[in-house]
Specification:
The complex is a heterodimer. By secondary structure, chain A is an alpha+beta fold. Chain A has four helices and two strands. Helix content of chain B is 44%, strand content 19%. Chain B contains nine helices and eleven strands. By secondary structure, chain B is of the alpha+beta class. In chain B, a hairpin with a 2-residue loop joins strand 8 and strand 9. Classes of the chains: A alpha+beta, B alpha+beta. The interface between A and B is medium-sized, with 23 and 27 residues.
Chain lengths: 113, 294
C-alpha cells in the first residue's frame, strides 16, 4: 500500500455516492470500492462510514435493501436514488471547479503575476 | 417545515427494527473484515479484535448512526417526556391544579362554542328557515318582553296578518303513555294543524291533524316522532291506525314524522293536537302559550 491521504471534510458522502452509483454495494463493499477506485490512496475511517450511509439514506439520496451477499449472509445493499444521482452530479461539478481553481492558484509562478 | 415533517415521518416508520438492522449490518461488516484479515494471515481471534477496533467504539458508532438516521429525535423526545412525567408526579398539587385549569377552560370554551354553534351559526333544520319567526307577546308596562300568546291571540291573528303565510301555536307538555301498570311519562308537544306545514315538514307516514281535531273529544289522535316509533314500536310499518293510551284516553296514531325532526330544543317524542273550546277562540281572557309563524 502506498501513501494514503486523509479525507477532506464533506468528501466522504461524495465518494459513497460515487461508489454506489457504479453498482449496489453493502457497507463493507463501499469501503473496499472507495479504496479500489482511489488506487488505495484514500483511507476511509470505518467509524464514520455507517453514520454517513444512514445520513444519506435518511436524506433519500441512497436506498438500502436487504439481499443475499456473496457468502450467503444477509447484507444491506445500497443503491443510488434519482435524487442521489442529481446530488452526485452537482457535487462532482462543484468539486472539479474547486480543484481546478485551487490547482491553477497553486501552480502560479512569479512571472505570471 | 415540510421537509422536516417528512424526515420525521420517515424516521418514525423506520424506528421499529432500526436497531436490529443496524446491529446485523455492523456484525456483517466486522465478520467480512475479519475474514479478509484472516486471509492476509492474521489469526481468527486477532482478526475479530482488529475488525472491532478499526470500526471504533461500537456503541458510539451506533449512536452516530441513530442520529444520522433521524432516529435519535424520538429517543430524545421519549426521554424528555419521561422526565416531564416524573417531574409532574413529584408535585401532585401543581399537576392537579394545572390539569383542572386546563379541563375547566376547555370545557367552558367547548360549551360556549356548542351554544353559539346551535344558536347563531347553524341554520334551523327546516326548509326555507330564513322565513320562520317566533312571535312573542310583549307587555312593556309590566316589564315583560317575551311572553307566550294565548289561544285567543292565535285565532285572532291567524289569517289576519298578511305578513304571515302560515301561523301555528304550540305548547310543551308531558303525557302518561301506555296501559295502566306499564305507563311512562313522555315529553310531548301540543300543536295546531298548521304547525308542520308552517315548518315545511310532512309526516313520512300517515297525515297531520285536521281542524276538526282541535276540538275536545275529537283530539284523540297522535303523531309519533321517528325515534319513538323505532324504540317503542320497532318501526312497525302498520303503526298508523293503531291505538295507544295517552293520559288514560284511547288515542289513534295517525302519522310518523321524518327522522331527525326536532323543534328547537324540544325533546318531545309525541305530538298531540292543541285543542280548545270554540268560546275561547274569540277575544276573551288571556292565557299562556306560544306561537310560531312565517
Amino acid at each position: 500500500m502506498g501513501k494514503t491521504a486523509d479525507l477532506l471534510p464533506g468528501t466522504l458522502d461524495m465518494l459513497i455516492l460515487k461508489a454506489v452509483s457504479l453498482q449496489p454495494l453493502h457497507g463493507y463493499g463501499v469501503l473496499l470500492r472507495i479504496q479500489q477506485i482511489s488506487g488505495n490512496a484514500l483511507e476511509i475511517p470505518q467509524g464514520s462510514l455507517y453514520p454517513a450511509l444512514y445520513r444519506l439514506e435518511h436524506q433519500d439520496l441512497i436506498a438500502g435493501k436487504w439481499d443475499q451477499s456473496e457468502n450467503n449472509r444477509r447484507a444491506k445493499y445500497y443503491s443510488l436514488t434519482p435524487a442521489g444521482r442529481r446530488r452526485l452530479r452537482a457535487e462532482t461539478e462543484g468539486w472539479n471547479r474547486l480543484t481546478s481553481a485551487i490547482a491553477a492558484a497553486l501552480n502560479t509562478t512569479s512571472e505570471e503575476v | 417545515m415540510w421537509k422536516r415533517l417528512r424526515s420525521f415521518y420517515r424516521a418514525l416508520i423506520r424506528r421499529p427494527g432500526f436497531d436490529d438492522g443496524m446491529n446485523e449490518e455492523l456484525a456483517f461488516h466486522i465478520a467480512r473484515y475479519a475474514d479478509d484479515l484472516v486471509r492476509s494471515g492474521v489469526s481468527p481471534e486477532e482478526a475479530r479484535r482488529l475488525a472491532r477496533l478499526e470500526l471504533g467504539g461500537l456503541n458510539s458508532v451506533k449512536e452516530d448512526c441513530r442520529e444520522a438516521g433521524g432516529i435519535h429525535v424520538f429517543d430524545e423526545l421519549f426521554r424528555q417526556l419521561n422526565y416531564a412525567v416524573r417531574l409532574l408526579r413529584k408535585s401532585p398539587g401543581f399537576t392537579t391544579t394545572a390539569l383542572l385549569t386546563l379541563a375547566i377552560c376547555l370545557g367552558a370554551s367547548l360549551t360556549i362554542f356548542a351554544v353559539i354553534d346551535s344558536v347563531l351559526l347553524r341554520p334551523l333544520p327546516f326548509p326555507d328557515s330564513g322565513r320562520l319567526v317566533t312571535i312573542f307577546n310583549t307587555y312593556p308596562k309590566a316589564g315583560v318582553e317575551r311572553d307566550g300568546s294565548s289561544v285567543t291571540n292565535y285565532y285572532e291573528r291567524r289569517g289576519h296578518i298578511p305578513a304571515f303565510a302560515s301561523l301555528a301555536i304550540y305548547r310543551y307538555g308531558s303525557a302518561i303513555i301506555g296501559e295502566s301498570g306499564s305507563t311512562e311519562r313522555e315529553r310531548i308537544m301540543r300543536v295546531t294543524p298548521d304547525f308542520f306545514a308552517t315548518l315545511g315538514v310532512a309526516p313520512v307516514m300517515g297525515r297531520v291533524f285536521t281542524e276538526d281535531e282541535t276540538s275536545y273529544q275529537a283530539d284523540d289522535v297522535v303523531i309519533l316522532s321517528d325515534a319513538y316509533w323505532r324504540q317503542r314500536y320497532q318501526a312497525d310499518p302498520h303503526i298508523v291506525g293503531t291505538q295507544i293510551r295517552a293520559d288514560g284516553v284511547t288515542t289513534t296514531v295517525i302519522g310518523v314524522l321524518p327522522p331527525g325532526f326536532r323543534f328547537l330544543s324540544s325533546e318531545a317524542r309525541l305530538y298531540f293536537p292543541l285543542a280548545s273550546l270554540a268560546a275561547d277562540r274569540v277575544p276573551a281572557q288571556r292565557h299562556s302559550g306560544g306561537t310560531s309563524s312565517r
